[in-house]
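Q: I have 332 residues here and want to know how they pack in 3D. Can you give me a structure?
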Amino acid sequence: MSWRRNSAAACALWAAAGALAESLQEQRAALLGGLQRAHGLDAGQVAAIQDIFAGSDVLGQGNPAPTRHPATPQQCRDQLRRDGVSYEDAAFEAICGDRYMVPLYDPQAAGPQDARVCIDRFEFPNIPCEYPVVWVRAREAAQLCAAVGKRLCDAHEWEGACAGRLLPADYPFERVADMPAAQAIEAMREPHNQRWSAAPRWSYGSAPTAGLCATGSTKSEGCNGADWQRCGSNTYPGGMFPACSNALGALDLHGNAAEHMNLPTRAADMASAGGGALGHTEMKGSWFIWDAVPAHPDWCRWRAPYWHGSPVMSEDSHRNYHLGFRCCKSLP
């Protein structure tokens, strides 16, 4: 490339990019080691995760250069230790078959032993006091969940985990069967939001409360939302805000990374149905703005407009510096 030969400034940029790529690779290697230790991954799972990460130029825990995390993993561990907080739960591990998952059910009608689905307690990599994975496309999120023996959550499952009560799926598939996807999603969204707006719930209670969740970070100066070089993934360590939860026990559903989930427009697209097809992206959460400015509704069952909409398995679905995911797991 001639511009490399002719421009000293361009050469400097090239060298910096090479150093950054190496730093990202180091970040990924440490992350994979943490996954192996925390979740006991086998060689096949490790190889599958490596392949998914290798297919992206940005997938990881953020660009190390502009990122300024509000707290370190060690500060998180020290705080939880001082407060006597542990996320180990042998009973839940026996039900879910993995560490750091919680059963989803309706406490008004059942108990954790009756659950037919579990959800990660934290955002992927689902390790306490670890930064969430971001810059992830919905397709990659679904692939990473599959690599560790799980799946992407359907929207109603994520919402149930957040609201503290998993209810049966309520997608009016027959009514939107002949509509294009974007129109179908909007048609489902309006009555859904009307139904739940009378008594909205946040993961921690019935009213929005600043300071309880990982919502106090700020964007990098000059970040325009999609610039890898200028947008730091200024996330908190997962689980650093134990009060950002409810009786079911999943954390950071408000704050920290926004999260991909699956919004089906037909029954065959439900991840929980196990048929292999998936629907469209739904994204909720995120760490910036909320403690200072409520940018839009963020109660648990609120469904957003078709922002950055695409099929989950699209090759180019939306990704950015504060967008991650967590996984669900169907139980026998």
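Q: Anything worth noting?
A: The two ends are 56 Å apart (CA to CA). The first strand starts at residue 101 and ends at 104.
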